[in-house]
Amino acid sequence: MGEEVDSIMNTEDTLTHKENGDGDTPESNVKYYTLEEIQAHNLSRDTWLIIHDKVYDITSFLEEHPGGEEVLLEQAGSDATESFEDVGHSTDAREMLEQYYVGEVHMKDRKKEAKKDVYISTSNDSGSASWTTWLIPAVAAAVVGVMYRFYLMEHKSS
Questions:
Q1: What is the pLDDT of residues 48-58, one digit of tens each?
Q2: Residue 142: what are its φ and ψ, rounded to 5°?
Q3: Where, by residue number, does the polypeptide cross the bilayer (predicted)?
Q4: Which of 17, 62, 95, 109 could form a disulfide with 69, with the two C-beta atoms 3.0–4.6 Å apart?
Q5: Which is it for the CA torsion 120, 123, 124, 130, positive or negative?
Q6: What is the distance in angstroms between the CA of the first residue and the CA of the last residue of the chain?
């Protein structure tokens, strides 16, 4: 009977940790870090970055980075998601990043996703815009060409 109580207590503790997003849980093995903890790792001998709410310790990669260590140190201890995506890293670079993974940003410190506006077209004639985009410039070019021909003919005859 005592073992059942211990089992129930351990299950309740695990569920509480999961709901609160606290530290490691035996089932998830994910370590959560607050922004304050991450910001403390902003030195060349201890460099952490946040990319897509995941935390990476890239200290050992600084000298290997093809863009130089300075660009990484500028982002040290902060969210580098935008910079990482702006550069357009390859699939290999994204896979390499996984070896430096140390945890995730704590749920309370994550940025809220901005609502993205979705525009829905209610037009039934979806192909109408495509032919007009090339037809109008083509007609304009033809008119200019004809006018140029008449202009040249007029100057040759005089």
A1: 999 999 999 99
A2: -65, -45
A3: 131-152
A4: 62
A5: negative
A6: 116
